[in-house]
Design brief:
By secondary structure, this protein is an alpha/beta fold. The protein contains 15 helices and 19 strands.
Length: 470
């Protein structure tokens, strides 16, 4: 645990008692503060009581008297689509509002660091797609390099649940827009922006607000190095704001759309080859095509971002290449589940929208596509350009029939359940095919979350292969 600094003997309110909220309350207590915890959910309040906290109703009049700060969990909206009433009450009382990320950055460095040979560093990663894989990949590369490292934030453990840093350690944080938009302190040593596609627009008041939340990691934090994906206009805008001159090597541009030229520092991938250029010269190259844990252009972008993030730490291209080959990928993200009879089974249950599914559909050559669930606005109509490799679609869940109407000439079967879809796709698959779960929809019609959906897919695949073997 990282004890929160700066609130000793003061009362600090905590709103939202999920993973990050309870961790913040514990860390505040460890730093000598008195946490006043609250959640609108009676179930969450009961969990807090089991953890030793007494709920304090922050909705009551004068609840913010003698309160030094309000710490808000990421899931609580504070501005759009409407301010949370408790947050509005804190504003009215003049109480600063922060979150666990802000507490982390104000508390991470300690006087003990003066005795370290090398100060710990923080790599913070944000963006719309790929940030979880990029963060996990950075952490994996550091471990292969023998560097002490911790992974936290929107992936793994909460930031305040980490252990205090040791000499030379690198902390890797995945940060969502919900986390970056509210943190009062954002001071990473290296900050990474992967890409930007529309997401969480209600929460941020539109695309501009969404980008502004991501941009705060760079505008507020002033990182020593910024790794910026420049394949969207927002990334090019951000890169231009950071660089003081064309050769400014505080900025590393990343692309999978084009070769990046000029005197600056760049990492890009074209036709499956990663290239690093610096001062107009190529200084590194990796063939990504044979790296099984990183299939497809979207994963090549993740590889480029991770490569660029660790190069300023002095890691060599050869060592990074070695680490990329041993990366197994994240569960439910282009995860190879099994291979049998020339057929590959891939679990990409995290592809909960059309943009994510489009990336998966471009990663494989001959696809038996399992899709469906609780569809989002537009369904799969935008996927028409990416259906060329789809031999047949096997549709499940609430939106199966809606999706069927949007597939054009692509063959399909209404399966409704995952069990029928896996059985049918497996029976019809030919050597060279990939049975791909990339639902392009939320899971909540049939599963509590995308993880459970992916686990069901994997269990059904293994059970079917075991039955065939017997």
């Amino acid at each position: 645990m990282i004890p929160v600094r700066g609130y000793r003997d003061r009362r600090v309110a905590v709103l939202g008692l999920g993973r990050s909220g309870l961790a913040a309350a514990r860390a505040l207590g460890a730093g000598g503060a008195t946490p006043l915890v609250w959640d609108d959910s009676a179930e969450a309040r009961a969990r807090a009581q089991e953890a030793g906290f007494t709920p304090h109703d922050l909705g009551k009049q004068n609840a913010f008297d003698d309160v030094a700060a309000l710490i808000v969990s990421p899931g609580v909206p504070h501005l759009y689509p409407a301010p949370n009433p408790i947050i509005a009450a804190a504003w009215a009382a003049g109480v600063p509002v922060d979150n666990d990320i802000g507490l982390f950055f104000r508390s991470f460095a300690t006087p003990e660091w003066d005795r370290f040979e090398q100060s710990p560093r923080v790599i913070a990663i944000t963006g719309s797609n790929g940030k979880s894989t990029t963060a996990a990949l950075v952490h994996h590369i550091l471990e292969v390099a023998g560097k002490p490292a911790q992974l936290a934030g929107n992936i793994g453990r909460g930031v305040l649940d980490m252990e205090p840093a040791i000499d030379g350690e690198v902390v890797v944080l995945e940060l969502s827009s919900y986390q970056t938009e509210l943190a009062r302190a954002l001071t990473p040593d290296i900050a990474v922006f992967t890409n930007l596609t529309p997401d969480h627009l209600d929460r941020h008041g539109g695309q501009g607000g969404y980008f502004a939340a991501k941009r705060r990691l760079f505008a507020e934090g002033g990182p020593d190095r910024a790794v910026i994906g420049v394949d969207e206009a927002e990334g090019r805008f951000l890169a231009n704001q950071i660089a003081q001159e064309p050769a400014d090597d505080r900025l590393i541009r990343v692309s999978v759309d084009r070769k990046l030229t000029g005197p600056g520092w760049a990492v890009f991938a074209r036709k499956g080859f990663l290239s690093e250029y610096r001062k107009g010269r190529q200084v590194g190259s990796i063939d990504l095509r044979a790296i099984r844990g990183l299939p497809g252009t979207h994963n090549h972008q993740n590889a480029c971002s991770a490569y660029a993030a660790v190069r300023p730490l002095g890691l060599s291209p050869g060592l990074i290449e070695q680490a990329l080959h041993s990366f197994g990928g994240l569960p439910h993200r282009s995860q190879i589940v099994a291979e049998a009879g020339g057929v590959t089974y891939v679990n990409d249950s995290k592809a909960t929208n059309a943009d994510s599914a489009a990336q998966a559909l471009q990663a494989f050559k001959s696809i038996r596509w399992i899709a469906g669930g609780l569809g989002k606005d537009g369904g799969v109509a935008s996927l028409t350009p990416y259906l060329g490799a789809v031999q047949k679609a096997y549709l499940i869940g609430h939106s199966a029939r809606e999706f069927a109407l949007q597939l054009g000439t692509t063959p399909y079967e209404i399966c409704e359940t995952m069990a029928r879809a896996v059985a049918s796709a497996s029976a019809e698959a030919q050597p060279g095919d990939t049975v791909l779960l990339a639902p392009a929809a939320a899971s909540f019609d049939q599963y509590p979350d995308f993880e459970k959906r992916g686990e069901d897919f994997m269990a059904l695949v293994h059970a079917g292969l075991q039955a065939q073997a017997n």
